[in-house]
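Cont'd.
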Amino acid sequence: MSRVDLFLWVALPYLCVAVFVVGHVWRHRRGQLTWTTRSTQLLESRLLRIGSPLFHLGILAAVGGHVLGILVPRGWTEAIGIQEHAYHWIAIVAGVAAGTAIVLGLAILLYRRVAVPRVRHTTTRSDLVVLPLLVLVIGGGMLVTVWGTAIDEYPYRTTVSPWFRGIFGFAPEADLMAGAPFVFQLHAVSSWLLFAVWPFSRLVHAWSFPLGYLRRSHILYRSRTPRAALARNRALDGRRRG
Amino acid sequence: MHVKAQMSMVMNLDKCIGCHTCSVTCKNVWTNRAGAEYMWFNDVETKPGIGYPKRWEDQERWRGGWELDRRGRLRLRAGGRLRKLATLFANPDLPELDDYYEPWTYDYETLTRAGPSQHQPVARPESQITGRPLELAWGPNWEDDLAGAPERAGADPNLRGAAEEAVRLEYERAFMFYLPRICEHCLNPSCVASCPSGAMYKREEDGIVLVDQEACRGWRMCVSGCPYKKVYFNWHTGKAEKCTLCYPRLEVGLPTVCSETCVGRIRYLGLVLYDADRVEAAASTPDERDLLEAQLGLFLDPFDDEVQALARRDGIPEDWLEAARRSPVYPLAVRYRVALPLHPEYRTLPMVWYVPPLSPVLSMVEGEGSGADPDDVFPAIDELRIPVSYLANLLTGGAEEPVRVALKRLAAMRAHTRERNLGSEPDPALAASVGMDAGEIDAMFRLLAVAKYDERYVIPQAHAEVAGRLAEQQGSCGLEFPGGPGSCGVQARRADPLGAAPFGDDEIDLVGLLERRGGR
């Protein structure tokens, strides 16, 4: 096993996961003020109304597919009676459907980001890092589904998936991944990088999906408590002294 | 019964001269920042007209506020919670920037850099978002003083039913009045109910509706949920912002900026006590035309001993009760019934009320040389060029009688006071004809016409004793930085060890962070 393999399939994943976790703690504590979808619907609505639901719903479906294909071991699905052949076809049909929605949605959204001046001018530097990465991850993912799974029929559930689970079991088997086709490798590396920049970008809005809204009461009241005011004054005092 | 105090406002449209001082001072204080250029927490509209944003009153289109379902229960017009989540990725009811206007500035550099030339240099307008030259086609007060009204004012959503027939828009017959608008700080705010993140809330103490800038996630449901379109989406920070009723000023007993700077002295600020337990029932009143009465029924008499006892039980401090007794809003809305809410049919129970404009009636009558005999004035009220039905569509959900009562009382007040000024004793029958007595009319005149500063604004200080310190923060708590407003406390609490706010204009600025660290 070469050093490059060791880096790509062991060191990089741990590095990116570490940045992902620590970054999120940092962002959660310091970055609430910028924690938002950064929606541009106000600036352009016509294209977004087609592209955004396609993209987001496709992504949600793809996340589900990844859970099934990568996190769930092959033995489990077979134990509940889903044979490999059936799984294979489910994965291809659902995967291609979700992937098509994502690619279409992303294409529309990227087009409006470049071609609509208002949207282009509100693009942040973090977008410039995240969007190319997203293209890489999604393009790679689409290739994995179409070429790697449907045409080449590469058995990723016995190679890529155990490697991925191994990382979280602290027993990564780099060999499994070193022998995988290039599209799988590309998809894996670009995804780790995406996870690494996640906490520093607008992607954090994914964690804010407002499920709590379904249960809370309609009208909310908050008190302006003396304690809060005291804390504020104390902080101000500290700043004045410092 | 649960007694709550609500800070509320009355605007006397009879005295509004449409000078926009309120809008400009508000903008200079609150929305003079990147992303907020197009926001007018306070704007002044000419009525009839389509307003800002365009046709905001058309709830068939924007689906703001509440409605009753088939079983008579209150629900958000834009749909329930599941529908909100289903439309999270693209909100079908969200206005676009062009429904407001694309904010612009002028290319002043061309002027300052111009060399000697044959022709006068020109500063062309350019977009504040893209920086590109902009063909100006719409703005926040494009229809000022009925500009363009013959083509456009017919699209005013209040022109329906009888009003449509009666309003005459030809130039020489035209009639107009001004409508300054801020957030209504509703008792039943649909923006708060629409916010999926729970970032919007009503303040327990004074009922001011605010957006928690740290909790807002930019789902923008509040923007479409507010029927008054007074919550705005900041395209730069990606968060919602709205009128704060200048709470940092109110907390130290100062009136809002729009009130303080009002040239016509049309604004009144004061507390109203209300029964929070009956809010939902009042908002669910079946007939839209009864909503005004239902809302009036929520307000509690601050002079009533029982109300005072209950208010004390519910933690309202003594000086706030005193302020409620001196409140200018309570008599204008409840005792004299000359102030009316804006579009009560949205069922949000708005708390900025309006005294309807009377001047055109009197000038019509007086212009022909007749005296201010109420016998001449009262019939004229029904012959207004802007008919009572238009004001009713605007202020009472279509009920004409409350508008008529308010206008007649204002007319009677003028006749009564004129008699007094001319040295004769007013006829008590005049006051009696509008259901008031001379003492009440004198008091109303004092409040509306003399309008002393400390009678217009009765604002109890915020009741954390420590809140007095807020005054000291004045001038140290700027809002001009991107990512405002009002995050002084936030900055102090989250002081950044790297020597700067964690995110400036941009979310990820690793280069900048490294540079700053290297500089230490």
